[in-house]
Design goal:
- This protein is of the alpha+beta class.
- The chain has a domain at 3-68 and 103-113: hypothetical protein PF0899 fold.
- Helix content is 25%, strand content 35%.
- It contains two helices and eight strands, in the order αβαβββββββ.
- The strands form three sheets. The protein has a three-stranded mixed beta sheet with strand order 2-1-8, with helices on one face. A three-stranded antiparallel beta sheet has the order 4-3-7, with no helix packed on it. A two-stranded antiparallel sheet has the order 5-6.
- β5 (88-89) and β6 (96-97) form a beta hairpin.
- α1 packs across α2 (41-51).
- The radius of gyration is 17 Å and the shape is elongated.
Length: 114
C-alpha cells in the first residue's frame, strides 16, 4: 500500500510547516488528488489515521479534494473530460489524444494550524 509512504511524506511536510510557523499543531490537512493519480482516497484516509499518531497532525481533519481528469485535443484545441487511461478519444472530433492537462495531481494544498 503506497498510500502509507505518500502520507509519511505529506506529514513530514506538515511537520516542517507547523514548525516554521511556530504553531503547535495542524488542525486540517487538505490534499488535492487527481482521478488518474493512482491513489485510493480511502486507503489514504486510513494511512493518515495511522501515520499521524503521535505527530502534530494527530486528531487533525484530512480533507481530500478530487481533481477530475481532462485531456487536450490539438486538432480541436479544446480540453475534454476523461475517465481512465492515457490515450483518449476527443469528444469533439474523435481524434486520439494523449496530452493530459489535469488529473495526475497529488499535492498538499493547505494546512490549517493553531
Amino acid at each position: 500500500m503506497h498510500e502509507v509512504g505518500i502520507m509519511e511524506s505529506a506529514l513530514a511536510l506538515v511537520q516542517r510547516q507547523v514548525t516554521a510557523h511556530r504553531a503547535s499543531r495542524a488542525d486540517r490537512v487538505v490534499l488535492r488528488i487527481g482521478t488518474l493519480a493512482g491513489v485510493e482516497p480511502e486507503s489514504l484516509r486510513f494511512a493518515f489515521d495511522v501515520v499521524s499518531r503521535g505527530t502534530v497532525a494527530e486528531g487533525a481533519t484530512l480533507e481530500i479534494e478530487s481533481v477530475p481528469a481532462a485531456a487536450y485535443c490539438p486538432t480541436c484545441q479544446q480540453e475534454f473530460a476523461v475517465e481512465t487511461g492515457f490515450i483518449f478519444i476527443c469528444t469533439g472530433c474523435g481524434d486520439l489524444c494523449g496530452e493530459i492537462r489535469r488529473g495526475r495531481e497529488l499535492e498538499l494544498s493547505r494546512i490549517e494550524m493553531s
